[in-house]
Design brief:
It is built from 26 helices and no strands. It has helices spanning about 1-20, 25-45, 50-65, 70-95, 100-115, 120-140, 150-170, 175-200, 205-235, 240-270, 295-315, 320-330, 345-370, 380-395, 410-435, 440-450, 455-485, 485-505, 510-525, 530-555, 560-585, 595-610, 615, 625-655, 670-685, 715-735.
């Protein structure tokens, strides 16, 4: 019974870890709700009225969610600086509340300064956010000069409550967050292996569904890997440790993605296109009956289940002989003599399982330290030697300096001007709608500019906020009717809605807006200002604020979505060319390069592009052809990035891996591919550029070996396969981007 209970708890823990990497959303929700509850409890014991309770609750929420730094010391400094900013803001709000023109002018200046402060990093962003939100709070509760002492006391209490929850009750040190993210990576890796197992067993009519699960699992694993990279610097003791973890995470991700591709190829009995794993909705290759014979299929199924168990138990501290036996068997597939008799495609799957097991072993050693080696087979011992040699060779590298834009070209300055103009329009229009609650339009205009960089992104965010507000108003009406005059019931529901708001915020902006609006309906009930007209006015003000934001973004220093995506696309292509050229250069015997850093920069650039294309691929986008093109281009770039990452990971093995040597014949093999990438980048930068992509003989034939004979070692063969597919993907990228492709000569 105890063993069964432990297994259930472990499965539940893995599910939670996989759904919320690092438990960031859960921590944010608990910390905010705890700070608000503590503030309300103390204020109620002091006999505070409802207005003061609402002000304290909102201040506690702002003091908690505004802090973004990862280091606890930096968080403490920002929180300490935030209190005087909050006190000054609420005081000015109380003084200027009755002075229409001066108050409005100051609000616009405050908004400009708050947005401009983002250029100073997380601390500037937090202080600007606190200043704006607390000024808004003063308008919401109708702060007066006579009430200032009590309001300032509530503010101080709210900040103290936030500090207590952040540093004592729900602490989240960088090391602890990184540890939880590593658990999430392991859980998501196990989920991906499960999806691959289902792909192996899926009947022909369910292949599309199984492939969609593998595609989603691959994307979720990559998302977690990116989150870990973001936290490595703060969560590890030194740069060497950070680079070691980064390397092992990258190895595991590449091995898992390659295993999925090999399984897809084995099932379809034809070469599967890597694009299939990255393009949403892409159909699975046709399957004519079982591609894997029954006996071999049973062995393959057993080994995939064993790999799944190995992944799950890798972080459990289990060092039993059962785990060692499984690990030894899977690592044995890295030797040709241990492969079962089967077709070449199926044998590749067994090799992929062996490489995945090696990646899991490397991840465990990097995260948990040396392991018991008493049960090692020769294959396992060799894998350990390779990993040890690689670990010893890892060293830190210097970050490249980034060119900083100045003046109105700087994004923070441009956004500050835009939001100031939009807020001015929102103030004028909002006061025409309501002289009492015009600030809702300003709040919406402010919010749609947060974390957006183009007109299209602002338009989509405004639409989502309006949609969430409309449904939230309906929920607010229902909740207000149910709560009536029960103050503490209303506050309890407010806490539930706030937790839900923070928990879903990274997943759905529409849902977050829904919970915010439903919560506001309850706050209006508490302030005895609730009515259907007030909630309808909330929709009108939200629509007005979103419209003002879009108008300001479109007319004042505009950044069109196409321009923004083209800039980011050019950056991705530049990073892709750098990684490819450096990796192939090192594989052909050139000097060592910082390939891990280059691959990380490529992934980050691609993530930025993926976010910027959301307005183009949003379901409400009327231009369906452009939507399909944007989705296809991003999927092709993800395919290119996978092959480039794999080339970089293989090149990183050269200095230490005993069975891998540089192959001078590879020198220049990627020349055409890199030229094509640069050609496409030139067309993206200038649509009138007279350029042309090249095609021609296969990459393998460029090495000048005779066809039909064994030409290369296994590693060189793998490098050539990735180069071939990268070359094909780059040529495929040229067509949707309007770059002519030259036909092969002769």
């Amino acid at each position: 019974m105890r063993a069964a209970g432990r297994a259930v708890r472990a499965r539940l823990r893995d599910r939670i870890a996989a759904s919320d990497p690092g438990l960031l959303r859960l921590t944010a929700g608990l910390r905010t709700v705890g700070a608000i509850a503590l503030t309300l409890a103390v204020l109620s014991l002091l006999g505070a009225d409802v207005h003061l309770l609402v002000a304290g609750a909102m201040a506690a929420m702002v003091a908690t969610f505004a802090i973004r730094e990862k280091q606890l010391g930096a968080q403490a400094v920002t929180l300490a600086l935030g209190l005087p900013v909050a006190l000054a803001s609420v005081s000015l709000g109380a003084v200027l509340n009755s002075r229409l023109v001066v108050g409005d002018a100051f609000f616009v200046v405050l908004i400009f300064c708050a947005v401009y402060g983002r250029r100073f990093g997380d601390r500037g962003t937090a202080l600007g956010l606190i200043g704006f939100q607390v000024y808004f709070l003063s308008l919401f509760v109708g702060a007066t000069v006579s009430a200032l002492p009590a309001l300032c006391g509530a503010m101080a209490l709210a900040f103290c409550s936030s500090a207590l929850m952040r540093f004592a009750v729900v602490p989240a040190s960088p090391t602890g967050v990184l540890l939880r993210m590593r658990l999430a990576f392991r859980a998501r890796l196990a989920q991906l292996v499960s999806a691959q197992l289902e792909l192996l067993d899926a009947p022909a009519d369910e292949m599309d569904k199984a492939l969609a699960a593998v595609r989603e699992g691959t994307a979720r694993l990559h998302e977690t890997a990116m989150m870990i990279q973001d936290r490595l610097e703060e969560g590890t003791p030194d740069e060497s440790a950070a680079r070691l973890v980064q390397r092992r995470i990258a190895d595991a991700e590449i091995a898992a993605e390659r295993l999925g591709l090999l399984l897809l190829t084995a099932r379809s009995a034809e070469r599967a296109d890597t694009l299939t794993l990255h393009l949403p909705g892409a159909p699975a290759p046709s399957v004519a009956g079982p591609a894997v014979p029954d006996e071999t299929g049973a062995t393959l199924r057993r080994d995939l289940q064993a790999l799944h168990a190995l992944v799950l138990r890798a972080g459990s501290g289990d060092t039993g002989t059962g785990l060692a036996h499984v690990r030894n068997r899977l690592l044995g597939y890295r030797d040709e003599e241990n492969l079962p008799p089967a077709s070449a495609a199926v044998q590749d799957v067994f090799r992929g399982i062996g490489e995945s097991a090696r990646a899991v072993l490397g991840l465990r050693i990097a995260l948990d330290g040396p392991q018991d080696e008493s049960d090692d087979t020769p294959a396992t011992a060799r894998s350990r030697e390779e990993l040890d040699a690689e670990d010893a060779a890892i060293d830190g590298g210097e970050e490249a300096a980034q060119e900083e834009q100045t003046g109105l070209r700087r994004p923070t300055t441009r956004a500050a001007v835009q939001v100031a103009v939009g807020s001015s329009l929102a103030i004028v229009g909002g006061e025409l709608l309501s002289t009492q609650r015009w600030y809702w339009a300003v709040l919406t205009c402010w919010i749609v500019f947060l974390n957006t960089a183009s007109t299209g992104e602002i338009l989509v965010k405004g639409y989502r906020r309006l949609l969430g507000t409309v449904f939230g108003v309906v929920a607010g009406i229902v909740l207000a009717g149910l709560v009536g005059k029960h103050t503490w019931t209303a506050f309890a529901l407010v806490l539930v809605l706030i937790f839900a708001m923070f928990y879903v915020a990274p997943l759905s902006y529409t849902l977050m807006s829904f919970f915010v609006t439903a919560m506001l309906g309850l706050l209006y009930t508490l302030l005895h200002t609730y009515s259907l007209d007030v909630l309808v006015l909330r929709i009108e003000e939200t629509a007005l604020g979103a419209a003002c934001g879009v108008v300001a973004a479109a007319l004042v220093l505009p950044v069109q979505t196409d321009r923004r995506t083209n800039e980011l696309l050019g950056t991705v292509l530049e990073r892709l060319a750098e990684v490819t050229e450096a990796a192939v250069g090192q594989l052909s015997g050139g000097p060592a390069d910082e390939l891990l850093d280059k691959a990380r920069d490529l992934d980050q650039a691609l993530a930025d592009l993926r976010g910027a294309t959301q307005p183009l691929i949003h379901p409400v986008t009327p231009l369906r052809t452009r939507r399909h093109t944007a989705r296809y281009v991003v999927a092709l770039l993800e395919t290119c990035a996978y092959h480039a990452r794999t080339l970089a990971a293989t090149a990183e093995l050269l200095p230490t891996h005993p069975s891998i040597a540089a192959d001078p014949r590879l020198r220049g093999a990627a020349g055409r591919t890199v030229r094509n990438i640069e050609t496409i980048a030139a067309r993206v930068a200038d649509e009138h550029a007279d350029v042309q992509a090249e095609t021609g003989p296969s990459i393998a034939s460029l090495l000048g070996s005779d066809a039909g004979t064994p030409r290369y070692g296994r590693i060189t063969d793998r490098v050539l396969r990735h180069l071939e597919r990268l070359d094909e993907a780059v040529v495929g990228l040229a067509r949707p981007l309007g770059v002519p492709v030259a036909a092969p000569k002769g």
